[in-house]
Amino acid sequence: MxxxxxxxxxxxxxxxxxxxxxxxxxxxxxxVVLALCIxxxxxxxxxxxxxxxxxxxxxxxxxxxxxxxxxxALPPLVIIVLLYFGLxxxxxxxxxxxxxxxxxxxxxxxxxxxIFWAGITxxxxxxxxxxxxxxxxxxxxxxxxxxxxxxxITIPPLTNRTIAITKGTALASVVAVPDILGAAxxxxxxxxxxxxxxxxxxxxxxxxxxxxxxxxxxETRFAWKR
Amino acid sequence: xxxxxxxxxxxxxxxxxxxxxxKGVDLVVAEKELVFLIxxxxxxxxxxxxxxxxxxxxxxxxxxxxxIDMLDARTDINKARQRIGMVFQSFNLYPHMTALGNxxxxxxxxxxxxxxxxxxxxxxxxxxxxxxxxxxxxPLQLSGGQQQRVAIARAIALEPRVMLFDEPTSALDPELVxxxxxxxxxxxxxxxxxxxxxxxxxFAKAAADRVxxxxxxxxxxxxxxxxxxxNPQHERTRGFIRQIERH
Lengths: 226, 247
Known about the structure:
The complex is a heterodimer of chains A (226) and B (247).
Chain A lengths: L2 H9 L2 H41 L3 H16 L2 H11 L9 H27 L2 H9 L4 H29 L13 H12 L3 H27 L5
Chain B lengths: L4 E12 L2 E12 L3 E5 L6 H8 L7 E6 L2 E2 L7 H5 L2 E4 L11 H11 L5 H14 L15 H13 L5 E5 L7 H16 L3 E5 L3 H7 L2 E6 L2 E6 L1 H6 L4 H11 L2
Parallel strand pairs in B: 3-8, 3-9, 6-7, 7-8
Antiparallel strand pairs in B: 1-2, 1-4, 4-5, 9-10
Helix pairs in contact in B: 3-4, 3-5, 4-5, 5-6
């Protein structure tokens, strides 16, 4: 066997690929569901925290900053492992799926809160003053004037961060979740051939490439009209 | 000119930390009066203006606008502010809304008008600043002068009792100043009460009833435009007038 044949046999073995394709497809959908749950809950929680922070209640803001910094500092894998292996000692057993979802949601919440907050503070003070001078209240100004502008500014960094964190769903394979990587790893173990990993890589591309393109489209769609 | 004052600010003090920006300023503006505030930068004229609608809270003193005690904790400040239009140096239009949307927002959300009614009123306000044909333009599609006129429309649409102008032409290219001043002059002719912080001396001479010269957080001199510009009583006023007339 030449080197090239060894390479194709290892990574593009048609027989092995055909055998494990169904498992990878199952893993694909599981990853999609996990990613969507993380994005929905993480961004919603991040936005909620940023909005609460906008009210400027000191002790509450210190708490928010502490929580946000905590989950930005901890590696996601550490949080997953802590939730999955640590919480049962406190009498709370989470499935691998829920532990992974919760951990990555907390991480996305923390990072997106900082991005939303940066967006809110980047809206010039004059926008607040103009709105308040016409009689709009604080909450009205926040929702009709400041937030729509803040969200536009946040779209590029938010898309990047969301993609980076949802790719972390691969970490769920560590706590026995049969996501794309979990299914691919299992395939490798059973077949003694790494080709399922190739399928896994393709599955990740199929999943995240459209997300990247969608992010780009949203950025253009929401650019200021000139 | 002797009708009840629209604006009555008494003994206004304002501290920013250790800075004493306003040192007991009185300003009374009668109905339909146009008062010009001039003075060197840092003299407190913008701060005084912003105390009138409580964008700044005075440290002490009293502010009454159209009979409403602006500093009373029981005053609904959002309601009171509808009677006080304000125009800013940097326009501050909402970039994500069309000209019409900018003007209609407070009509809908503050005055509670329905969309159709708010937009009809907003369109009428845009007509008054001669931008009826720009209603669907976004701020970035308008020149600075047009943006400032939309900002004026946004304020007058709420039918305020007094308009505050904070250096409305300072950020404009010279050729765009005229259009904004023309609109301000029309407002004046329609009987609007106005307080204007500006260095447009030509406009002050032509349209102002009274010019107030401020320096170091206090009013130095007040008078009719021709008195203040031709025959200032105080040395500080003379120095300031000489300086701006050289430009």
